[in-house]
What does this fold into?
Amino acid sequence: EIVLTQSPGTLSLSPGERVTLSCRASQSVSNSYLAWYQQKPGQAPRLLIYGASSRATGIPDRFSGSGSGTDFTLTISRLEPEDFAVYYCQQYGGSPRTFGQGTKLQIK
Amino acid sequence: EVQLVQSGAEVKKPGESLKISCQASGYSFTSYWIGWVRQMPGKGLEWMGIIYPGDSDGTYNPSFRGQVTISADKSVSTAYLQWSSLKASDTAIYYCARHRLSAQDAFDFWGQGTVVTVSS
It folds into this structure.
């Protein structure tokens, strides 16, 4: 099983700032089969990025993903108030599919 | 518009059985894999397993194999997650979600979640 470790656990930032979230895999994720999701309290997760770097439909271009192998990042270029949420990475290259433990982005 | 609408919240006792549902609309139900994801109170997401409604082919996370059953009924475009004997540790929110293009892809649409509470 591929274990995904996200860092940091919690980030406190202000609107307008730039942020980079990290997701590290215990072994290489084949074909960069790595997704990022955003989850707000009381809501289902929402797909942001798939294939490590492709934005899902309707996702603003301030969200970008990069990486390959075992190291992946999600960058939000300029935080908007609605971006404060929990972010999860997920790999779907191996079985079982696995999620990281999440990074909580909170307002400073 | 793609929609996944899940059944309502459930309160059950340990040892009881339960079947929750996920009704799909807005796309060809038999052409996309659907999965189930668990979120225990205050915790992260766990991938439970997936099913292809076209032929009911599926796969489970070993952590959940034998604990739950995933099924689908093409005639009503609905996927199911069921337990034969609930435990208190099954208390969680359960989400269904559709795979983007194949089983080896991200989840692009999610249901609203079903809250399951198991308590004596």
In short: Chain A has a mean pLDDT of 97. Chain A touches chain B at residues 33, 35, 37, 39, 44-47, 50-51, 56-57, 88, 90, 92-93, 95-102 (CB under 8 Å). The first strand of chain A starts at residue 4 and ends at 7. The CA atoms of residues 29 and 96 of chain A lie 12 Å apart.
